[in-house]
Amino acid sequence: MVVKARDEPARGAVLRSMAMSDAFREVAVAAARRAGAFLRAHRGGARDVSTKTSPINLVTEIDRGAEALVVETIHARFPDHSILGEEGGAQRRSATHRWVIDPLDGTTNFVHGLPLYSVSIALEVDGRPVVGVVYDPNLDECFVAERGGGAFLEDRRLAVSLTAGLGASLLATGFPYDVRDTADNNLAEYAAFTRRNRSVRELGSAAITLAAVAAGRLDGYWELVLGPWDAAAGALLVEEAGGRVTALDGGPLDREAPALVASNGHIHSEMIAVLQEVRAR
Question: pTM, whole model, 2 decimals?
Answer without folding.
Answer: 0.89
